[in-house]
C-alpha cells in the first residue's frame, strides 16, 4: 500500500510519460520524471488490476522481469529532479497495457503511460502442407499467420515465375498473363489473403509456392508448399527420321517425356514385319536425363545404337513411358536415301 504524507511544498510531474511500442522479447522502459520530490515516494502500478509493482526504489512484485531505477539531479535553483524508471525485461504479450506512476501526496498525484507489444509474424500449423492433385483439378493453398499487427500474406513461386499470381489480389479470378497458362486461373481471397485458389491446374503450375507473412515487425517468415500435379506421360521425339546411309557408325535417338509421377521409360524396336521386341544391351544403351525445367517434370530418354548394321536400319524404334496415370509412346523410323 502507498501511504500519503502532508507537506507544504508538493512535487510536480516534470513531463508526461511517453507511451512505448516494443517488440516481443525486448526490454521496455517507462520514465516518470518528478520535480521537488523531497521526502515523497513514487510507486508504479499496473492500471488494469492495480497490482503494485514498486515503491520508491524497491520492487514489490514477484515478477523477476520487473526492475526500478532512480536518478536524482539538482539544478542551479536547488530544485531537484527525480527520474523513477520502470523496466520490464523480456516483454510478453501479457505485459501490454497501461501503467500508473503515482506520488504519495495527500491528494494522490498520478500519471499513466502505456505499453503496446508488437509480435513478429508466425505461420501456424493449420497452413497447407505439400499437396498432390491431378491435372485440371482445383486446389486451394491455405497459409495462416499470427502476429501483432495482423500479418499480411503474399504468395510467390519459388522459381520466380510469378506472372501467374494476380497483381491485384481481389475476389475476381485473374487469368494467367501468358497464353500458355490458359487452362489455369488463380485468385487470392480472404481479408488477409490467406488462401490461394488455383483452378484447373496444369503441369506448368507444378511448383514450390511461398507463403510470406510480414507485419513490419522483423523477421519476415515464409513457408514452402510443394504443389505436385499428376498427369499421364506425353512423349515427343526430337529425332523425326533416320537416314539409312549411316552404317558402321554410332547414332543416338532422343525422346522428350513429360510426366508426373516420373515415368518408367524403355525402348522397343519394330521390324518391317511389324514384330515388336525389346532392345538388348551391348548393341544398345539407354540413358535418361532429367531436364532442368522449372517444375522438373521433363526427361530426355536416349537410345544409342552402336555400330549400325543393315538389320538395324530395317527397324523403327519406339520410346515408351509409363506411370500411374497412363502410358504413351513415340516412334522414330529409318527411311531410304
TrEMBL record:
The keyword Transmembrane does not apply. PROSITE patterns: IG_LIKE. It is found in: Cell membrane. Residues 11-104, 121-222, 233-331 form the Ig-like domain. InterPro entries: Ig-like_dom, Ig-like_dom_sf, Ig-like_fold, Ig_sub, Ig_sub2, Ig_V-set, Neural/epithelial_adhesion. GO terms for cellular component: neuron projection; plasma membrane. It comes from the Eukaryota. The keyword Glycoprotein applies. Its main location: membrane. Keywords: Cell membrane, Disulfide bond, Glycoprotein, Immunoglobulin domain, Membrane, Repeat, Signal. SMART domains: IG, IGc2. PANTHER family: CTX-RELATED TYPE I TRANSMEMBRANE PROTEIN (PTHR12231), LACHESIN-LIKE PROTEIN (PTHR12231:SF105). This is Ig-like domain-containing protein. The lineage of its organism: Eukaryota, Metazoa, Ecdysozoa, Arthropoda, Crustacea.
Amino acid at each position: 500500500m502507498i501511504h500519503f504524507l502532508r507537506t507544504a511544498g508538493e512535487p510536480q510531474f516534470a513531463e508526461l510519460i511517453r507511451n512505448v511500442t516494443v517488440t516481443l522479447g525486448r526490454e521496455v522502459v517507462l520514465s516518470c520524471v518528478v520535480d521537488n520530490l523531497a521526502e515523497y515516494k513514487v510507486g508504479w502500478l499496473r492500471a488494469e488490476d492495480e497490482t503494485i509493482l514498486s515503491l520508491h526504489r524497491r520492487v514489490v512484485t514477484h515478477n523477476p522481469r520487473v526492475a526500478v531505477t532512480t536518478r536524482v539531479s539538482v539544478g542551479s535553483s536547488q530544485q531537484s529532479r527525480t527520474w523513477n524508471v520502470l523496466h520490464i525485461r523480456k516483454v510478453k504479450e501479457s505485459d501490454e497495457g497501461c501503467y500508473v506512476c503515482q506520488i504519495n501526496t495527500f491528494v494522490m498525484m498520478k500519471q499513466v503511460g502505456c505499453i503496446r507489444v508488437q509480435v513478429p509474424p508466425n505461420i501456424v500449423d493449420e497452413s497447407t502442407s505439400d499437396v498432390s492433385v491431378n491435372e485440371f483439378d482445383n486446389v486451394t493453398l491455405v497459409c495462416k499467420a499470427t502476429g501483432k499487427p495482423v500479418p499480411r500474406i503474399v504468395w510467390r513461386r519459388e522459381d520466380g515465375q510469378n506472372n501467374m499470381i494476380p497483381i491485384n489480389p481481389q475476389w475476381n479470378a485473374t487469368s494467367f498473363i501468358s497464353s500458355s497458362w490458359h487452362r489455369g486461373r488463380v485468385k487470392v481471397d480472404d481479408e488477409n489473403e490467406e488462401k490461394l485458389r488455383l483452378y484447373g491446374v496444369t503441369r506448368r503450375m507444378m511448383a514450390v509456392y511461398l507463403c510470406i507473412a510480414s507485419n513490419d515487425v522483423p523477421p519476415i517468415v515464409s513457408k514452402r508448399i510443394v504443389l505436385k500435379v499428376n498427369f499421364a506421360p506425353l512423349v515427343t521425339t526430337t529425332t523425326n527420321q533416320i537416314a539409312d546411309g549411316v552404317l558402321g557408325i554410332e547414332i543416338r535417338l532422343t525422346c522428350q517425356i513429360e510426366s508426373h509421377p516420373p515415368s518408367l521409360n524403355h525402348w522397343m524396336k519394330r521390324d518391317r514385319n511389324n514384330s515388336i521386341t525389346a532392345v538388348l544391351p551391348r548393341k544398345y544403351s539407354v540413358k535418361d536425363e532429367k531436364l532442368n525445367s522449372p517444375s522438373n517434370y521433363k526427361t530426355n530418354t536416349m537410345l544409342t545404337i552402336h555400330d549400325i548394321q543393315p538389320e538395324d536400319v530395317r527397324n523403327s524404334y519406339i520410346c515408351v513411358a509409363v506411370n500411374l496415370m497412363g502410358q504413351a509412346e513415340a516412334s522414330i523410323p529409318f527411311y531410304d536415301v
